[in-house]
Structures are given as structure tokens and as C-alpha cells.
Design goal:
Blueprint lengths: L2 H20 L16 E3 L14 H10 L2 E8 L5 E3 L6 H4 L10 H4 L14 H8 L5 E5 L5 H13 L5 E5 L2 H10 L5 E5 L10 H7 L4 H4 L3 E5 L6 H9 L4 E6 L2 H7 L5 E4 L5
Parallel strand pairs: 1-2, 1-9, 2-4, 4-5, 5-6, 6-7, 7-8, 8-9
Antiparallel strand pairs: 2-3
Length: 270
């Protein structure tokens, strides 16, 4: 092997080692794994009925059926932690306003998908669930990451049920790693290029290259990308649990079951 070939081989080995280090999740002192139940995406919801997504009615139905719950938290303008997925109110309430522009009191004026339900306070959701089923709490962190983490965590510290946190935003996991290291934390991801996001940060998040900083306890990945290389390596090489989102039929559940350990579902009952 000539000098140039040796240099290339050495560089290749270094890059490979750096990649495996970058995608490494937490390996030591992992928290207890989440219960092996199915998790209802935004509650056991029907956006055309009386229990639309991320409402108390949808969460009550999930509890009654014995399903775990996945839900989303963000901040209203007055600092209340509310449960809603979209940052904007157009899809769920038909209002041309961002949630961060409305107080909690204002949000109570807007029906969710035309029902009698309203966007709830996170603390009211915790009171309703009362530890009866496990929770996956997704942090929607476009604004005020530290404030959202601090205020949501303050509510969760008073909660006695089983829960974990997750986010697409690595800054949320960094906050938890620094401030609440014993809490189970998960990195959400998918193929960002499907949404034409080609900037380096999205490339890094798609391939889980931020794990070296955030040390997640699980990966929650778009189930349609079940063979994503970094996901497979995290699960197989590092024994990192993988959560599938969002499974939408019994047929899809059967298809993705070999690739994941936990399943977040909607539109059917597994």
C-alpha cells in the first residue's frame, strides 16, 4: 500500500470512528425503560368527532382503553404550559394566530376542530391521567426553550406517574442532560430532506449526529424510514430503544414491528 492509500485508509478509519461516536446514545446509568404498551398519538383522538387531538376528551379515552399517551407541550403568551401540537392555530382552531401570541384565557375562546373541547393546560392533563397510563411528553420548542423546559419540568416534578420526554430539538435534551439527568429523554427525528430542509443542522439531526452531545435514552423515528442507517445502528449496536411514529394501520404495525421496540399509533386500535 502506497503512502496516499495509507493516508486515505487512515482518514476513512478516523471518520468512521467519529461517526460511531457521534451517534452514540447514553450507555451507562440509563433510567428504567418505558412500559411496553401502545401509545396513542395525541390521545385516542378523532378530529371529526367529540375527542379531537391533544384534548382532555382524547386523553380520557386513551386512559379508559389502557393506552399510553403521547402529547405535545408549548408555551402560551402568558407563560402557561399548554398542550397542542401546531405552533399555529389555523389547523386546529381556524384562527390566524400563533399559540405564543395568545394567553391561556384567549385560547379558551377557540373550539378545537369545532368540538366543545379547548386547548388544555398541561397541569390539567396530568391531573386527569393521574399516573394511570405512561406519558410521552414532546417539547415543541420553537420559542423559549429554557423557559419551556423549566416550567414543564416543574409540573412534572410534582407528578407521580411514569413519563419520558422527547423533542426534535437537541437543545431540549441538552437541558435535561444538564438539569434532570435521571429523566428518560428521547431524540425525535426523520428524513428532513423530505421537507426540503438541506441545511447542515437538519442533516446532522436526520442522522442522529447530535447524540454525542445529548446522549438520548431512546430514538423516536418516522416509521416510514424504518431502515435509516443511524437508527438501525443505534438500536442494534448500542441497544438503544426505538420508538415508531406514527403507525396508522394494523398492516403498517405488522410491517414496522421488527424495526422498533415501541409504537405510537393513531387512526386505529392495535
Amino acid at each position: 500500500m502506497n503512502r496516499k492509500a495509507k493516508k486515505l485508509a487512515k482518514t476513512g478509519a478516523a471518520l468512521t470512528g467519529a461517526y460511531f461516536a457521534a451517534i452514540m446514545p447514553r450507555l451507562a446509568n440509563r433510567p428504567e425503560p418505558m412500559p411496553k404498551v401502545y401509545y396513542a398519538h395525541r390521545g385516542l383522538h378523532d378530529n371529526g368527532g367529540d375527542a379531537p387531538e391533544n384534548t382532555l376528551a382524547a386523553f380520557q379515552k386513551a386512559v379508559d382503553a389502557g393506552y399510553g399517551i403521547e402529547l405535545d407541550v408549548q408555551l402560551a403568551r402568558d407563560g402557561h404550559v399548554v398542550v397542542a401540537h401546531d405552533m399555529h392555530l389555523k389547523r386546529n382552531c381556524g384562527i390566524e394566530k400563533n399559540i405564543c401570541q395568545a394567553t391561556y384565557g384567549e385560547l379558551q375562546q377557540y373550539p378545537v376542530f369545532g368540538s366543545d373541547q379547548r386547548i388544555p393546560l398541561f397541569e390539567d392533563v396530568l391531573k386527569l391521567v393521574d399516573g394511570r397510563v405512561p406519558l410521552i411528553v414532546e417539547y415543541k420548542s420553537e420559542f423559549s426553550v429554557r423557559e419551556l423546559c423549566r416550567k414543564t419540568d416543574a409540573l412534572l416534578q410534582k407528578y407521580t406517574g411514569v413519563y419520558c420526554i422527547e423533542s426534535f430539538d437537541p437543545r431540549v435534551l441538552l437541558w435535561y442532560r444538564a438539569n434532570r439527568p435521571k429523566i428518560c429523554r428521547g431524540q425525535l427525528s426523520f428524513n428532513y430532506q423530505k421537507e426540503k430542509k438541506y441545511e447542515p443542522p437538519y442533516f446532522a439531526m436526520r442522522h442522529l449526529l447530535t447524540d454525542i452531545f445529548t446522549a438520548p435514552d431512546f430514538i423516536a423515528y418516522d416509521c416510514t424510514d424504518k431502515k435509516a442507517v443511524s437508527l438501525v445502528l443505534c438500536r442494534k449496536l448500542y441497544r438503544c430503544p426505538a420508538f415508531a411514529w406514527t403507525v396508522k394501520s394494523a398492516e403498517e404495525l405488522k410491517e414496522v414491528r421488527p424495526y422498533f421496540d415501541y409504537f405510537i399509533f393513531e387512526g386505529f386500535r392495535p
